[in-house]
Amino acid sequence: MSMKRPAIRRYSQILLAYFFALFATAFFAFPIFWMVTASLKSDQAITAFPPVWVFTPSLQNYAKLITDIGIAKMFINSVVIVGLSTSLAMVCGTLGAYALARFDIKGKQMIAFEILSIRMLPPIVSVVPMFILARWLGIFDTYWLLTAAYALSGLPFVVWVMRVFIQDIPQSIEEAALIDGCSRLETFWRVTLPLLLPGLAATMVIVFMFAWNEFLLASMLTSNAAKTLPVIAANTLSAKSIAWGLASAAGVVMSLPVVILVLLMQRYLVRGLTFGAVKG
After folding, report:
1. Of 115, 179, 217, 276, which sits 20 to 30 A from 139 (CA to CA)?
2. Are 202 and 269 in contact (CB under 8 A)?
3. C-beta atoms surrounding 162 within 10 Å
4. How many CA atoms lie within 13 A of 21 on its CB side?
5. Which residue, 142, 160, 14, is CA-closest to 100?
6. How far apart are the C-alpha atoms of 201 and 89, rounded to whole Å?
7. Three-state secondary structure along 97-127?
8. Residue 248, burial from CB neighbour count under 10 angstroms (0-12, 13-18, 19+)
């Protein structure tokens, strides 16, 4: 009996852990399930009480998004603007992080803090000056304005996160490549960058998500030509009513690119998020 009690206790703990894991998964997955099913219902079925669980799916809400709201154009705007800004922030931020991590720069700690201070600035403080400058420069409601704003917003995060990843790579590896005749740029491209792929993937996904879901700058610095998906999704809300079907459909459309990106990057994400957490 004394031998069976530890085994029973161990199996009970395992079952309890699985139960809590399944409960947590269901708890966090239910809003996604509700959003997807609501996007396939009519407004009457969505607001019905008790809730309607068995229904005939319809793509009417998605059709309205395309025909009435013009979400296809806004989707392209978001992909172009967020893609350019994320790429720009990753390239410039990674190079800046490499310089701060590897080079003996006077006052680099202060430089790093000043870069981080850009991230501390609330967007509501900078949106009015940016609006005035954009109108003066003639770039209001253009791709370039939002691309620059999102890139500058994501740059401090990239610099600080990638700086830690680069510092966790032994400098002796780069020194060996330099001794073998590689230049500093070749060393970074052939040696350091492949080792940074997990960190790059994790950082890129986070920067992409921040820019993809950003609403304040997109609503204040655009009028029509460069509107993005968050602005259009907000149009489903009015002062008197909420188009729940359209809002749910817009939420599904907004979520798909992020889900696809995470699935493509999942090979690197787990290692990237835990990279440097344990040091020997």
Report:
1. 115
2. yes
3. 23
4. 6
5. 160
6. 13
7. HHHHHHCCCCCHHHHHHHHHHHHHCCHHHHH
8. buried
Q: pLDDT by residue (tens digit) across 183-209?
A: 888 888 888 888 888 888 889 998 999
Exposure string of 194-216, with b = 16+ CB inside 10 Å and e = fewer, is ebbebbbbbbbbbbbbbbbbbee
3-state percent breakdown (helix, strand, coil) of the chain, nearest 5: 75, 0, 25
Residue matched to tokens 């080079």:
103
Its sign, for the CA torsion 263, 265, 269, 270, is: positive
Gap between the Cα atoms of 126 and 128, Å rounded: 6
Tens of pLDDT along 10-53? 888 888 889 999 999 999 989 889 889 888 888 788 878 888 78
What is the distance between the alpha carbons of residues 158 and 140, in angstroms, rounded to a whole number? 26
Which tokens in the block code for residue 106?
Answer: 């006077």
Distance CA 83, CA 24 (A): 32
Neighbouring residues of 134: CB distance < 8 A, sequence distance ≥ 6? 140, 145, 221
Task: Judge contact between 98 and 161, C-beta under 8 A.
Answer: no
Q: Is there a contact between 242 and 236 (Cβ–Cβ < 8 Å)?
A: yes
Joined together, the tokens standing for residue 268 give: 């690197």
Given a contact cutoff of 8 angstroms between Cβ atoms, the answer to whether 93 and 159 are in contact is yes
d(CA 244, CA 72): 19
